[in-house]
Design brief:
single chain, mainly alpha, 2 domains, 379 residues, transmembrane helix, globular
């Protein structure tokens, strides 16, 4: 029953996030800012506090990680408006004003500020807009965060706790289901880092999500390679950060997402079997998902889990490249198409230039001949 509740809540939440990203004004840009805030705070905390500080006993780096991890709300309130195109000054004013609140209140406050901040530049004269904007945005951002914090804790955080509980009670089943779904989210235009940050996922559930993104990156690499969905740079880019290849992904959803479910699910099974814990929310991406678990687990166990996750992701890519071979749209061979189009354009230009030159020469010769004939008649 807990599995059904956990997966149902996850799918419902993903639906809401998708609706926000694609339909809300500047929703996708706001989600991108939230993902950047998660990396700037939670990833730094996971590496420096738990690895450099607790494991390697570097007190200074441990303090750096601890402070960084406490600034999630500030980072979100700054980076979200900036991603939406707001004046950086207004973004920083909003960020420093909500110190002490978490990343979710910071995200919502930052999103609202990102929508209204441009009005200050449009309605007020230059110079006055900076002063008035700063004085009004600071209390407004704090008021929004203060009002939304109880709502966030009662909804999104509670959903994240339900998913974490389901992962603990049925680790292998949730490992496959959660791993497959989160890898699809990781590859889609909807940021998995933003989703896991908003849900506040921790523990085994976050470990599954992060390792699934690591193993699933090999799924994407093999799919791109075997189905010829781009060149070498496209393959490397989709493995490191799938969002950079969104045009190719959205053009070939069936082979890519279908393979991601299998590859991410198998990678998630590895994380569940080895009980990989990750208490850094928002690190569901190939590189953060690889680094963060070292701060909470025995390094040898993490390396073994990652090895099996890579194997699972590779199996997903190989199987998917065979099963979904007929669904790939190979007209997106970017280099070849661009080169051919450029060559054709050059040929057209040369032909036009040649024809134009010939016409000009003919017209010039005719004019000269007419002139000579006229003069000869005069003489």
């Amino acid at each position: 029953m807990e599995i059904v509740k956990g997966m149902g809540l996850l799918l419902f939440t993903l639906g809401l996030f998708s609706l926000f990203s694609f339909k809300a004004p500047k929703g996708s840009k706001a989600m991108s800012g939230l993902a950047n805030a998660a990396v700037a705070t939670f990833l730094v905390e996971a590496i420096h506090k738990y690895i450099s500080g607790d494991f390697l006993n570097f007190a200074f780096l441990g303090k750096v990680g601890e402070v960084s991890g406490s600034m999630g709300g500030v980072a979100a309130a700054i980076l979200v408006p900036i991603s939406m195109g707001a004046n950086p000054l207004y973004a920083v004013v909003a960020g420093v004003a909500i110190g002490g609140y978490g990343i979710l209140p910071g995200f919502i406050a930052g999103y609202i500020i990102g929508l209204i901040a441009p009005m200050f530049d449009k309605k007020l004269p230059e110079g006055l807009n900076t002063i008035v904007g700063a004085l009004l945005i600071a209390p407004l951002a704090r008021f929004i965060a203060m009002g939304i914090d109880p709502v966030v804790n009662a909804t999104l955080v509670n959903i994240g706790q339900m998913i974490s509980l389901a992962a603990q009670q049925s680790p292998l089943v949730m490992g496959f289901l959660l791993g497959g779904i989160m890898k699809v989210v990781c590859t889609s235009p909807l940021s998995s880092m933003a989703v896991t940050a908003m849900l506040g996922l921790q523990g085994l559930a976050m470990g599954i999500a992060g390792i699934a993104c690591v193993g699933g990156s090999f799924t994407n690499g093999i799919i791109f390679k075997r189905l010829k969905l781009g060149n070498k740079s496209n393959i490397i880019a989709v493995m490191l950060e799938p969002l950079t290849q969104a045009p190719i992904v959205t053009k070939n959803p069936i082979p890519i997402y279908g393979s991601n479910i299998l590859g991410g699910g198998l990678a998630g099974l590895s994380a569940a079997y080895f009980n990989i814990i990750n208490n850094a929310p928002g690190t569901a991406s190939p590189i953060p998902g690889l680094l963060a678990p070292f701060g909470f687990n025995d390094p040898k166990k993490v390396l073994i889990a990652v090895t099996f996750a890579v194997m699972g992701g590779s199996i997903g890519g190989l199987v998917g490249s065979v099963v979904f071979k007929g669904f790939a749209k190979k007209d997106y061979n970017s280099d070849e198409i661009l080169v051919n189009e450029i060559n054709e354009s050059n040929n057209d230009i040369n032909n036009i230039a040649g024809e134009t030159a010939t016409e000009i020469a003919d017209d010039t010769n005719n004019d000269i001949a007419d002139t000579l004939i006229t003069k000869s008649k005069v003489f």
